[in-house]
Amino acid sequence: xxxxxxxxxxxxxxxxxxxxxxxxxxxxxxxxxxxxxxxxxxxxxxxxxxxxxxxxxxxxxxxxxxxxxxxxxxxxxxxxxxxxxxxxxxxxxxxxxxxxxxxxxxxxxxxxxxxxxxxxxxxxxxxxxxxxxxxxxxxxxxxxxxxxxxxxxxxxxxxxxxxxxxxxxxxxxxxxxxxxxxxxxxxxxxxxxxxxxxxxxxxxxxxxxxxxxxxxxxxxxxxxxxx
Length: 227
Ligand code: C5P
Fold this sequence. Notes:
Layout: E1 8-12, H1 19-30, E2 33-36, H2 37-50, H3 58-67, E3 70-73, E4 81-84, E5 87-88, H4 90-93, H5 96-105, H6 109-120, E6 128-131, H7 135-139, E7 145-150, H8 153-166, H9 173-189, E8 202-205, H10 211-219
Parallel strand pairs: 1-6, 1-7, 2-6, 7-8
Antiparallel strand pairs: 3-4, 4-5
This protein binds cytidine-5'-monophosphate (C5P).
């Protein structure tokens, strides 16, 4: 099967838009593979931290992006585990520190280039659900279905607050809202792969909607699945 024949559904959304949860659920319903592209950037950020690299040293970070091994393992009991250089870094990947490091290194064009082919390799039969900023624009511009999820910043901060609180992480709602707004601005304004939806993406506002309802709306957009 050529790559072009393998269907891809791309999902984009700012942090806290429910992108990861929705994408995983949609992939499970379709029986397709799932690429969490943010996890790759987070993994490089975490590996850079382990190696004590300076987040201002682009050359060292690019080498780190090439050298870091990243593997996903299904966990029947929960979300997939992510192994970074052979170590289970799933929990560390989800921290705000890893998110901030990912966002900083994602602004380096050579790091993005280093991760490009790795991302495209996830396109395997019978199909792929890929989430992340540039999935529908740069990595899989020929994807048949492209979705952009939106939600108010306040609702995104609240969802993230509940998630972290459930994990026993202590954060304030105000602090999270400020971080979310700052990261949105940095991701939208950077020169390389800014957070701009593909022109052919369908926008779904998830404010006030539960996961199940959004999953159905996304599934209805996939060719051959429309009601
Ligand atoms: O989606 P997630 O919050 O895990 O991504 C972490 C960071 O990695 C984002 O804030 C963004 O800066 C970067 N990223 C990116 N391109 C992607 C996925 C993530 O630049 N495709």
